[in-house]
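Aim 2, interim progress: modelling of the thiamine diphosphate-bound target.
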Amino acid sequence: MYKIYKDSKGLVAHGVSACAGCGLELIIRNVLDVLGEDTIIVIPPGCSALFSGFGKETALKIAGIQGNLENTAAYAAGIKAGLQIQGNEHTTVLAFAGDGATVDIGIQALSGVMERRDKIVYVCYDNEAYMNTGIQGSSSTPLGANTTTTPTGKNTSRKDLIKIAEAHDIPYAATASVANLVDLRKKVQKAKDTDGPALLHIHTPCPTGWGFDTAKSIEISKEAVNTGAWILYEYEAGVRKISYKPKELRPISNYLKLQGRFKHLKENEIVEVQDEIVSRFHKFMSEL
Ligand SMILES: Cc1ncc(C[n+]2csc(CCOP(=O)(O)OP(=O)(O)O)c2C)c(N)n1
Ligand code: SF4
Ligand SMILES: [Mg+2]
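Predicted structure of the complex, ligand included:
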C-alpha cells in the first residue's frame, strides 16, 4: 500500500465529506495521481460532486467544472475540442461520473463521444445506485439488491456498460476495482495514453448504500472479484483480455452476507443470484 501512495501528487484535499470507508474517495485519489496536474475534470451531480465542491470551494487542485447529470461526456468532448483548437494536445480531459450519470441518464452523451472518437478519458465509478439522492436503484444495481426504489430486491440484471462500449468498438475499455489498485492505476495510465475515447468502469464499494461496516470496503470488493460478481478485464484494439481469473469462483453468499442490501434474500433467491453470476462469468470466459 505504501508503494502506491508514496508518489501521491496530492491533487485531492484531505477532509472531504465523503462517508467513512467510501470507495469513491480512494478511486478519485488514485485516478488523479496517475493522470496528474495537467488534467481538466468534468463531474456531474452525485457523490463525486463532494470533490468538485460547493460555491467557491473545491477539494481538487486541478481545473474542472460541475455539469449536469445527463451530459458529462458532452461537456468533456467540448472542452477537448476547445483545447485542440488552441493547439493543446497535452491536457487530459477526464469525465468522472457515477453509474446513474453514465449507464442511465448520460448514456446518450457517452454514446456520442464513443461514436465520434473524442479523445477523452471517461471514468464511471459504479456504486450500483443513485446514492447521493437517497439510494435509488439504477440500471447498474445488481439482481436482488435492495434500494429505496427496489425495496424487495431488484428483479432484473444489471446493464453491461463495457459491452455497450464494445458495440462502439472504442480503442480502450476496462473494468477495475479498489480490490486491486495496482491494476486500476495501470488501466488509468493506458486510458490516458489511448488515442481516442477510453472508458473505465470501476466497482465502487459504498458502505452507506450497501449496508456494511466501513472497515470492510476492500474485503467486499475482493469478494466481488473472487465470486465472479465483478470481472476484471480489458477490451483493447478489439480484443477482450481477463486481468484476473479466480482459480475457482467462491460462493456468492460470501459476498452477499456482508451487505445489508441483500439480507432480505431467501435461500432460493440466493441460488438465483448465484446462477446469474456464474452463467455470466462462464459466458464471458467462453467469449474470450
Ligand atoms: C436530470 C437529473 N435528474 C435527477 C437529478 C438529481 N440527482 C442528482 S445526483 C443524483 C444521483 C446520481 O447517481 P449516480 O450518478 O449513480 O452518482 P452517485 O450519487 O451514486 O455517486 C440524482 C438523481 C439531476 N441532478 N438531474
Ligand atoms: S453514499 Fe456511498 S458513494 Fe456516496 S459518499 Fe457515502 S459511501 Fe461514498
Ligand atoms: Mg451511483
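The chain has a mean pLDDT of 96. The two ends are 31 Å apart (CA to CA).
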